[in-house]
């Protein structure tokens, strides 16, 4: 899982995220520590985690979790969804999204801007930018929301 994240970041964010972050020799081990905690630590127990595989090799990973702030408009957050570039368009991204987010949930996510491919993917699957922007470590992110299927019909 860590290798997929690191590979995806390097394929997707070169020129957006500083090279010293992407090329840091400790990047993969830091991601390994995170995923070990995400899979074993009690504080992540309510999260949903899924991987996509092809030929026994992990090609994508996703994680979502509940939001505990009742003042927010949404009740779930998509924290991670990455698929290696060679598998873009294969359906792995949609399968991962559907594995960690249910249609009856109002969901938010942050996506790098610019990242037109990811933004188009999320728009195709019902997410809309709500105007919120954050900058973290020099990377600009926009927030996108998707209302539950019931709320979209209302």
Automatic annotation (TrEMBL):
Keywords from the named record: Transferase
InterPro entries per UniProt: Acyl_CoA_acyltransferase, GNAT_dom
Domain of life, source organism: Bacteria
Pfam entry (one): Acetyltransf_1
Keyword Nucleotide-binding: no
Gene Ontology molecular function, alphabetical: acyltransferase activity, transferring groups other than amino-acyl groups
Gene3D superfamilies: 3.40.630.30
Name of the protein in question: GNAT family N-acetyltransferase
SUPFAM superfamilies: Acyl-CoA N-acyltransferases (Nat) (SSF55729)
Occurrences of domain N-acetyltransferase (ranges): 11-152
